[in-house]
Each structure stands twice: as C-alpha cells, then as structure tokens.
C-alpha cells in the first residue's frame, strides 16, 4: 500500500517535471524567435536606411561638385575637391571607427540580449 502511494507520487513528480521542462523549452523557443526577429528587423531597417542615405549622399555630392565646378569654371576641379573631402572623411572614420561602430552596436544588442523578462 505504501509502495503504491510512493509510486503514484513519483509518477506525478515525473509528469510535473516533464510539463515544467516542456514549458521551459517552449518559452525559450519563443524568446529565441522574438530575439531573432527583433535583430533581423533592426538590421533590415538599418540596411534600408543606409541605402537611402547613400543615394542622397550621391546626389548631394554631384550637386556640390557641379556647383564648385561652375564657380571655378572647371568641372574637374569641382569633382576633385569633393573627392578630397570624401578622402579626408574616410581617413577620419578609419581612425575613429572603433568608437563609432563598436559602442552603439554593443549597446543596442546588449539591450536585446540581456533584457529582463
């Protein structure tokens, strides 16, 4: 009689442990899906925004080069000056890239990964 009661209790304990593990697995699958979707949509948004900014920068650069070319009466000088400006900006970004890129990306993804639920 006592052994049957113990057997029922262990069977019940096993069933509850299985339910608990299944619920945890389902929770972490859902959490992983949510995290993957947030990071994917964030990257897609950044990609689309960067494409638009590249197009805007291209048109403004051409307009600036033409304006400088008109004022100097030589379009080649206008495009060379704009190219030199971009070269200086590229050097500036190259030397400060760690501060510009790593910090904001680390902060953004840390908020996503380590958010308390």
Q: Strands, helices and their partners?
A:
Elements (H helix, E strand, L loop, with lengths): L1 H71 L2 H21 L1 H17 L4
Keywords: Membrane, Transmembrane, Transmembrane helix
Protein name: Superfamily III holin-X
Structure description:
The protein is mostly helical. It has one domain (2-113). It is 93% helix and 0% strand. It contains three helices and no strands. The chain has helices at residues 2-72, 75-95, 97-113. Helix 1 runs antiparallel to helix 2 (75-95). The longest helix is centred in the N-terminal third of the chain and has 71 residues, at 2-72. The protein is rod-shaped and about 105 Å long. The chain starts with a helix and ends with a helix. The mean pLDDT is 87.
Please supply descriptive tags for the structure shown above:
single chain, about 120 residues, mainly alpha, 3 helices, about 95% helix, about 0% strand, rod-shaped, transmembrane helix, transmembrane, Superfamily III holin-X
Class from secondary-structure proportions? mainly alpha
The separation of the N and C termini measures 45 Å
Mean pLDDT: 87
Low-confidence stretches: none
**Topology order in helix (H) and strand (E) letters:** HHH
Beta fraction: under 5%
Summarize the main sheet.
Answer: none
Count of the separate structural domains = 1
Counted beta strands: 0
Q: How would you summarize what this structure contains?
A:
By secondary structure, the protein is an all-alpha fold. It is built from three helices and no strands.
């Amino acid at each position: 009689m006592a052994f049957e009661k113990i057997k029922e209790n262990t069977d019940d304990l096993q069933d509850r442990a299985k339910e608990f593990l299944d619920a945890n697995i389902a929770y972490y699958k859902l959490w992983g899906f949510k995290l993957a979707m947030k990071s994917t949509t964030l990257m897609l948004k950044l990609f689309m925004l960067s494409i638009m900014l590249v197009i805007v920068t291209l048109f403004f650069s051409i307009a600036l080069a033409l304006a400088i070319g008109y004022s100097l009466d030589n379009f080649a000088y206008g495009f060379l000056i704009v190219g030199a400006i971009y070269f200086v900006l590229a050097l500036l970004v190259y030397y400060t890239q760690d501060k510009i890129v790593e910090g904001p990306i680390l902060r953004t993804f840390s908020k996503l990964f380590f958010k308390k639920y």
